[in-house]
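Lab channel / #folding
Pinned by the channel admin:
"Please post every new chain as: sequence first, then the structure tokens as a reply. Keep commentary short and put observations after the output so the thread stays searchable."

First post following the new format, from NK:
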Amino acid sequence: MFDFLKKAKKPDPDAGRFLASILVVFPAVQSVTYDSKDETLEFSFALNGKFSHDDFEKFLNYVAESVEAFHHLEGLGGATIDLNVEGIYGTCFLNVRRDVATLTCRELSLLTELAFNYFGDRLIEEYDDSIPDEEYIMAQENYLEQCLNNMRQLRVEGRLVGVREHERVVVYAR
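Reply from TO:
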């Protein structure tokens, strides 16, 4: 009767920390969504500028070939990746959907690097005023790898979304 009175189920704190860590370690990732139904993560990169359909087509082929080579070198058979773009003028979003079972932190680094190499300063990266030192980033990457391994065993229900809001990271259940 009164759905708003039902107590909302809180997301698993480890899953929330995992999404927050992705946004902290990779400032080019604007949002990340975990979908428990498919056990996938979707990363969104924001781009600023005018792009043609051909620009995105070339980039998507570039990423697909690079990730396929990476998967081959890493021995990751059966990995699924889905790439798409929203918008063409102004701010565009490049979305990458990956299955959690075969995703690695090294692949996240590769995807970010590919986007930066291809789009350069048109890729929106959100750093706060103080760029973290190398030791902090290494500790966060190690923590992120640990969280990723934990996500493979967790049974997280529903959908979690992590977004960047200027200098803050917010994670919520949907």
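NK: The first helix runs from residue 13 to 25.
TO: also worth noting, Residues 17-173 form one domain.
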